[in-house]
Design goal:
Residues 46-204 form the Pectinesterase inhibitor domain. It is a single chain. The protein folds into two domains: 2-40, no CATH class; 45-212, Butyryl-CoA Dehydrogenase, subunit A, domain 3 (Up-down Bundle). It is built from nine helices and no strands. It has helices spanning 2-14, 16-40, 45-55, 61-68, 72-75, 79-108, 114-141, 147-174, 182-212. α6 (79-108) packs antiparallel against α9, α7 (114-141) runs antiparallel to α8 (147-174) and α8 runs antiparallel to α9 (182-212). The protein is elongated. Bound molecules: 2-acetamido-2-deoxy-beta-D-glucopyranose (2 copies). The site of one 2-acetamido-2-deoxy-beta-D-glucopyranose has 4 residues, from α6.
C-alpha cells in the first residue's frame, strides 16, 4: 500500500502537466454535469406507457394523459405517486376556479340578475369546500401507512374526493334556476372541465386503492 502511494506521488511529480490537465478536465466534467443530469430527467418509454395505461381507467383518458404525461419522470411507475400528482392537478384547477367564481361574484354584485348573484355566491362556497376536501386528500396521500392504516387512509381519500365532486356538481345545480346568459354558460362550461380533472384523480385513487387494499 505504502509503496504504491509513493509510486503514485512520484508519478504525479514527474507528470505534473499531465496531472494538471486531468484536473482541468475533471473540473470541466464537473461543470458539464448539470447539463448531463438533465438528460436523466427524460422519462423512459415505460414511464410514459405507465401513465397512458393508468389513464385508461379514467373517464377522460385523453385529458388524463395530457395533464399527467409531463410528470412521467417524477411518477416512475408508482401508482400512489401518480394519484398524488393527479390530486395536485385537480387541486390547482379547483383553486383557480374558486378564485374565478369569487371574482365573477364580486362583479355580479353590481347589477346581475339576483338568481345569478345567488348562484355565484353558492358556487364560490361549493368550490371553497371542494378545495378543502382535495387539500385534505393530498395531505393524507403524502403520509400513507401500511395495512389497516393504509386501508383507512385510502377510504378517507376516496370519501373526500367524492365529496369534492359533489360540491362541484352542486355549483352547476345552483345555476339551473338562473336565467340563461353569458355568465351561466361560462361558469357551467368551466365547471364541467374542472370536474373532469377531479373525476380522473378519483379514478386513479380508486385503482391504486383496489390494488393495494384488496
Ligand atoms: C421497460 O419494460 C420492459 C418490459 O417490462 C423491460 O424489459 C425493459 O427493461 C423496461 N425498460 C426500461 C428502460 O426500464
Ligand atoms: C381574480 O382577481 C384577482 C384580482 O383582481 C386576480 O389577481 C386573479 O388572477 C383573478 N383570478 C382569476 C382566476 O381570474
Amino acid at each position: 500500500m505504502k509503496s504504491q502511494s509513493i509510486t503514485i506521488r512520484n508519478t504525479m511529480k514527474s507528470q505534473r502537466p499531465l496531472f494538471l490537465l486531468s484536473l482541468y478536465s475533471s473540473a470541466l466534467l464537473f461543470l458539464l454535469q448539470p447539463i448531463t443530469a438533465v438528460g436523466y430527467l427524460t422519462p423512459t418509454a415505460n414511464d410514459t406507457d405507465f401513465i397512458r395505461t393508468s389513464c385508461g381507467a379514467t373517464l377522460y383518458p385523453e385529458l388524463c394523459y395530457n395533464s399527467l404525461a409531463g410528470y412521467a419522470y417524477a411518477v416512475q411507475q408508482d401508482p400512489a405517486q401518480l394519484a398524488r400528482v393527479a390530486i395536485r392537478v385537480s387541486l390547482s384547477k379547483t383553486r383557480h376556479m374558486a378564485s374565478y367564481v369569487s371574482n365573477l361574484s364580486r362583479q355580479a354584485d353590481y347589477g346581475a340578475p339576483p338568481r345569478v348573484v345567488a348562484a355565484l355566491h353558492d358556487c364560490f362556497t361549493n368550490f371553497d369546500d371542494a378545495v378543502d376536501q382535495i387539500r385534505g386528500s393530498l395531505k393524507e396521500m403524502r403520509r400513507l401507512g401500511s395495512g389497516e392504516s393504509l386501508r383507512f387512509q385510502m377510504s378517507n381519500v376516496q370519501t373526500w374526493m367524492s365529496a369534492a365532486l359533489t360540491d362541484v356538481d352542486t355549483c352547476t345545480d345552483g345555476f339551473e334556476d338562473a336565467p340563461d346568459g353569458q355568465v351561466k354558460t361560462d361558469v357551467c362550461e368551466r365547471v364541467t372541465k374542472v370536474r373532469e380533472f377531479t373525476s380522473n384523480a378519483l379514478a386513479l385513487i380508486n385503482s391504486y386503492a383496489s390494488k393495494e387494499t384488496p
